[in-house]
Amino acid sequence: MRKLLLAASILTLAACSGEAPAPAEEEAVAEAPAPEGVVANGSPAGAYDVTNADGTTMTANINADGTYSDVAADGTVVEEGTYAVVDGKTCFTPTTEGATPMCFTESQRAEDGSFTATPDEGDPVTVKPKAAG
Fold first, then answer.
1. How far apart are CA 65 and CA 82, in angstroms?
2. Contact call for residues 94 and 83 (beta carbons, < 8 A)
């Protein structure tokens, strides 16, 4: 609705001035991203505790700028790269040598913010927002 009102305002101003609106201005307005969660299930950027099927844990740092890092329990960064939501899945594209891209289907978040992330290949992981502190 807001875009429609903005477009109507631009057209009204253009009609009064006798000039057509610049297409680039309209595109810029239409492409403004909505402030939503950053992964497929709407979870926001932040640090998450990840528990693998074998019980090992790590921290996934999901950044609002579209980057991520996975940190082992001993503090070693094991993987870094970018992520994006593709076809309803959260897909990670590592820049770390030897790491493979992976996409995950995520369950809805529980009240505590936790969810299950199931990779296209492999075992599901449990993901929970890292406790502050």
1. 9
2. no
The burial of 105, by beta-carbon neighbours within 10 Å (0-12 exposed, 13-18 middle, 19 or more buried), is given as middle
Q: pLDDT, tens digit, for every residue of 64-105?
A: 999 999 999 999 999 999 999 999 999 999 999 999 999 999
Please tell me the predicted confidence (pLDDT) of residue 14: 40
Alpha carbon distance 80, 59 (integer Å): 12
CA distance to 3, 14, 49, 54, per residue, from 30 (Å): 7, 18, 36, 45
Residue 6 has pLDDT above 90, yes or no: no
- Residue 125: name the closest of 58, 60, 53 by CA: 53
